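Design request, tokens follow.
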């Protein structure tokens, strides 16, 4: 008689193929129903070639290993954070959206022609709808902010509106408080000189330029450098969101503090900056990152986040992604984020190349 096969692999050993299969079914079933998964339900729904008792033993083994948990003694099992992580990293593979879905999404984007604002709004809407999660998209942002054009407009005798346009179209504005009254003619002359001096340059390149002797020109040049550095170190000014109401209706988030914490991250600029810059700073364009349990952000500990960087490496890039409960449809969310990132990268690259 051959030795009996153990349900539980030794510490550090890979799950058995049957355990992987049952774990994948349990995750998918829980994602679909939001109800604890029972062995009999899996056998009946998926026409498994083994008994409910066998499935029950494997579910118990997966629970001992920490991939599943049992909310109540009489209930079925639900995935743990460890179970979701294993599902995402080992069991999904490189899933793609169905060809018909990809064609429909691509057609919507190309109908928008060269309207970047419309692309961003459409991307957020598509992500929210396909992934059934809250979506966010940042507008394309220069990796190294480059100067394009400056306007100085007189507001009052000792105030001027500083309007800086960057390569890529981003606009930075601030009010300058001047030591003495300055005419519009003088402001325009200074702006013209700064435009000739700074065209196409980064903050580091401007730092190498000798400081002008004229006090107003020196002030404006310092402000230009400050704005270029601030822009390069932040996410884009514009963040497009969709699906927030939809995700708040999920069972886990109904009247839950977790929902309020997640909502704060999506709405508060400082928290959103922390999420996106920490995760995406060194990511390659097109790469997808999944944070089960929100990564290091305490505010997202009951959530999962799928993010990708899009754009033209070295020129301008943005971030897009979805945020939802840990019971996220990863098999749909991940390929959707990947495909939309690929589409936006193509569109932005074509626009910048013109």
């Amino acid at each position: 008689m051959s030795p009996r096969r153990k349900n539980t692999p030794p510490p550090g050993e890979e799950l058995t193929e049957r355990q992987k299969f049952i774990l994948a079914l349990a995750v998918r079933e829980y994602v679909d129903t939001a109800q604890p998964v029972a062995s009999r339900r899996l056998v009946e729904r998926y026409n498994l070639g083994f008994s409910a008792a066998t499935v029950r033993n494997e579910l118990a083994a997966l629970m001992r290993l920490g991939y599943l948990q049992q909310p109540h003694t009489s209930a079925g099992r639900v995935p743990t954070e460890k179970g979701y992580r294993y599902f995402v990293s080992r069991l999904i593979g490189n899933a793609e959206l169905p060809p018909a879905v990809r064609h429909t999404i691509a057609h919507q984007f190309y109908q928008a022609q060269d309207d970047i604002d419309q692309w961003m709004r459409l991307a957020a809407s598509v992500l929210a709808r396909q992934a059934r999660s809250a979506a966010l998209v940042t507008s394309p942002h220069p990796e190294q902010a480059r100067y394009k054009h400056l306007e100085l407009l007189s507001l009052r005798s000792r105030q001027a509106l500083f309007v800086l346009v960057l390569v890529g179209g981003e606009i930075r504005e601030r009010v300058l408080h001047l030591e003495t009254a300055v005419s519009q003619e003088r402001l325009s002359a200074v702006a013209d000189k700064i435009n000739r001096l700074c065209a196409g340059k980064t903050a580091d390149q401007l730092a190498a330029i000798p400081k002008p002797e004229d006090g107003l020109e020196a002030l404006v040049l310092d402000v230009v450098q400050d704005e270029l550095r601030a822009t390069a170190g932040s996410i884009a000014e514009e963040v497009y969101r969709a699906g927030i109401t939809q995700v708040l209706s999920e069972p886990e988030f109904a009247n839950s503090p977790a929902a309020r914490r997640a909502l704060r991250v999506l709405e508060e600029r400082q928290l959103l900056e922390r999420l996106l810059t920490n995760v995406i700073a060194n990511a390659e364009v097109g790469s997808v990152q999944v944070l089960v349990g929100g990564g290091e952000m305490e505010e997202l500990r009951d959530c999962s986040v799928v993010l990708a960087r899009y754009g033209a490496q070295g020129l301008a890039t943005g971030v897009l992604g979805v945020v939802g409960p840990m019971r996220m449809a990863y098999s749909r969310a991940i390929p959707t984020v990947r495909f939309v990132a690929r589409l936006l990268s193509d569109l932005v690259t074509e626009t910048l190349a013109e």
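Comment from the thread starter after seeing the answer: thanks! Confidence is low (pLDDT under 50) at residues 1-12.
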